[in-house]
Specification:
Oligomer: single chain
CATH architecture: Sandwich
Number of domains: 1
Radius of gyration: 14 Å
Distance between the termini: 11 Å
Shape: globular
Number of helices: 0
CATH topology: Jelly Rolls
Structural class: mainly beta
Largest sheet: 5 strands, antiparallel
Strand content: over 45%
Number of strands: 9
């Protein structure tokens, strides 16, 4: 299953979390989480959390990179890399993953305001059990 979410200047406020993926009834395993940014003038601190039973568990924060040119291309980051999210378990191929239990919701936000026409896109690649 895949899930896409975007944060848009003028629509989404910095610090407001959006759902990136909701675990299936028997849990889920996320093998990929890409964060893309088209802002060529500023980096953005991205914060990820898992929410279960109304309790938020902040788990990772990292800084996005600048886009090569403003508003025409995107810079991307692998949020599940060991650099951006240290401590994740590794699968048999050595790749980090995030396991979600039933009731978990993976959420994300950004810390600094987006400038005119800029946006942050997310793409989660997860499998439900």
């Amino acid at each position: 299953n895949n899930s896409k979410q975007n944060f848009v200047q003028g629509t989404d406020a910095a610090g407001t979390y959006k759902t990136l993926y909701t675990a299936g009834a028997n849990g889920s395993k996320c093998n990929g989480l890409v964060i893309a940014n088209n802002d060529g003038t500023a980096t953005h601190v991205i914060t990820l959390e898992v929410v279960n039973g109304g309790t938020s568990y902040p788990l990772a924060s990292f800084t996005s990179t600048l886009a090569p040119t403003n508003n025409t291309t995107y810079s991307t980051a692998n949020a599940l890399s060991s650099t951006n999210w240290p401590g994740l378990p590794l699968d048999s191929d050595g790749n980090p993953y995030l396991q979600l239990v039933s009731g978990d919701t993976l959420k994300g936000t950004f810390a600094t305001a987006l400038t005119s026409s800029d946006q942050i896109e997310t793409f989660a690649s997860c499998a439900d059990f």
